[in-house]
Amino acid sequence: MGKLGNSEKLNGLSKLSRLSLALLVTWLVLPLIPLAIWSVSQSWFFPDLLPSKYSLRAWSYALSTTSGVPEALWTSTVIAFGTTILSAIIGIPAGRALGLYKFRGKALIELLILAPMIVPGIAVVLGIHVIFLKIGLANSIGGVVIVHLIPTLPYMVLVMAGVFANYNPEAEAQARSLGASPIAVFRYVTLPAIVPGLIVGSFFAFLVSWSQYILTLIIGGGLVTTLPLLLFNFATSGRNDITGAIALLYILPGIVVLLLGAKQLSARNTLANRANQL
Amino acid sequence: MTEIHIENLTKQYGKNSEPAVKSLSLTAESGKMTVILGPSGCGKSTILKTIAGLISPNRGDIKFDKRSILSVRPEHRNAVMMFQDHLLFPYMNVGENIGFGLKMQKRAKGEIHQLVLKMLDRVQLNGLENRKPSELSGGQQQRVALARALIVEPNVLLLDEPLSNLDTHLRLEMRDLIKSLQHEMQITTLFVTHDQEEAVVLGDKLALMLDGNLRQTGKAEDFFNRPGDHSIARFFGGRNFISGISAGNRFTSSLSSMHLSADCKTGNGTVTIRPENVLVDAPENAENSFLAILLKKTYLGTQTRLYFATEKEKFEALLNPEKALLLENGQEIRVAFPKQSLWMLT
């Protein structure tokens, strides 16, 4: 039924939206094609449209331990997961405060939370580096996770604030008077209501952390090597075949999240439709 | 069986705002339904929430059977609140919603299932166990909420305008269901409403609250026939307030010199009589009778409201519509205030 519904929807699109859809797909997919070709090419010189020789040696190198890619992949994953979990722990209560309550200075706090989206990271990270050096957080994964919170928190907090703006906290009062402890209230009442938003916010946080370069470079001090750092090294050294292979590995979580996220979002839509029918 | 004592309860939300509840004392008798009646925003819900433990009072004490419960956490008070909005958990089906309180008590699954089925039968929702709350009608949702509250057999049931969101016929049905289940289970219940009729039908005892203050408590009849003051009388539909001078069992006003049923303090005072107790078209020799001019008639369906005037006073009477048809606007009519219906306000 879902497929039928989708094709019906597609047929219903206007010419303009078909055009913009085509443009969007082109912009997203086209740049990936040369990367893919590079990763399997052995020799590819200027006037040729396609490589003259193909091989998988870039892939076998990229996946070997000598390249450092598997280790960087692991480091990136640990940091991105850590950042996402911390973002959620901070973002849920912060989003609740912003979404549910009115208080003095709320507009100012919203602006401060948005600030990292406006102010470039490099402007603040140098100062943070000095402090992190003093307290021993520099050059460590922990330090990198903390500094990654700067760009990820705005997404998490804003998504959660949106979720809590449509949330009725009296349901929690109801659960407590029925004998639920605060932990049980969170588990049975709050969490089910915020899970869709929490997933979307976590996707954002994971991807934003995954793609950090400058913050990782400065706070990690070259000792914490994530995938983007490694990718940059190979890109500047002119090894296009290896760069292509790593770049494809690098965008993998993005594609996974896109697919999962689309499912999540469409599930929300059908829920909303059902609610509208009532 | 739990008796609730509220002692000098005061709750102020902001530092500079008027207290929502001012030094209020009230007793809710064990196994009885006490109705707190008052206009919207008079602080009624605040009382229930402090009893449930959802907010804490600034001053005063709340006791269940003479033991203060202020330090007891809400989930351990066994005082279940039911709100105006049904607040069913949308991710659970009807059965899971009703069984929620038992699940929190960590009862066995089979036992919960048995009790849920029994409760569904009691609120006449057999077979709806697996429905989602969104698939129910408003009346059914509210009955699920009632079942969810009653299944834990609470010591205290706190009902915060649970009927206000329902259509008239559903409201009456639900009202009777609440009354019969409360009576059957003998749960000490506090019911909050702004609807005077609801209060009168449901309450074993009524407490009238105006502006955060408790103004009068007692049986429903007391509020109609022996109101404490002018504003209480008005809240219960009193329209006739006649000022004059009282001495012994006589009351002298511009209308006439009237007999009272009991002796009163000597001095200036106000008497009141309910519109439905005014005797219209009274015989010539009736006690406390006088002539008045009929200004206007308003047909109310089951009764007709008559507006009378004399030289100095105005008052109203309620009459059977058929009898009212025989009266003409502008006509001079003999009216009597029977002495047993006259009530001296203090």
- In helices, the fraction of residues of chain A equals over 70%
Strand content of chain B: 25-35%
Largest sheet of chain B: 6 strands, mixed
Distance between the termini of chain A: 21 Å
Runs of chain A in which pLDDT lies below 50 for 5 or more consecutive residues are: 1-5, 269-278
**Known CATH architecture of the largest domain in chain B:** 3-Layer(aba) Sandwich
Task: Characterise this structure.
The complex is a heterodimer of chains A (about 280) and B (about 350). By secondary structure, chain A is mainly α. Chain A has helices at about 1-10, 15-30, 30-40, 55-60, 70-100, 105-120, 120-135, 140-165, 170-175, 180-210, 215-220, 225-235, 240-275, and strands at about 40-45, 55. The two termini of chain A are about 20 Å apart. Mean pLDDT of chain A is about 85; it is low at about 1-5 and about 270-278. Chain B is elongated. In chain B, helix 4 (about 110-120) crosses helix 5 and helix 5 (about 140-150) packs parallel to helix 6 (about 170-185). The two termini of chain B are about 35 Å apart. The chains are: A mainly alpha (about 280), B alpha+beta (about 350).
Strand and helix map with partners:
The complex is a heterodimer of chains A (278) and B (346).
Chain A: H1 2-11, H2 15-29, H3 32-39, E1 41-43, E2 53-54, H4 57-62, H5 69-100, H6 106-118, H7 121-135, H8 141-165, H9 170-177, H10 182-210, H11 214-220, H12 227-236, H13 240-277
Helix pairs in contact in A: 3-13, 5-8, 5-10, 6-8, 7-8, 7-11, 8-10, 8-11, 9-10, 10-13, 12-13
Chain B: E1 4-11, E2 21-28, E3 33-37, H1 44-52, E4 59-64, E5 67-68, E6 79-82, H2 94-98, H3 100-104, H4 109-122, H5 138-150, E7 156-160, H6 168-185, E8 188-193, H7 196-202, E9 205-210, E10 213-218, H8 220-225, H9 230-235, E11 240-252, E12 257-273, E13 279-280, E14 289-299, E15 304-309, E16 314-319, H10 321-324, E17 332-336, E18 343-345
Parallel strand pairs in B: 3-8, 3-9, 6-7, 7-8
Antiparallel strand pairs in B: 1-2, 1-4, 4-5, 9-10, 11-12, 12-18, 13-17, 14-15, 14-17, 15-16
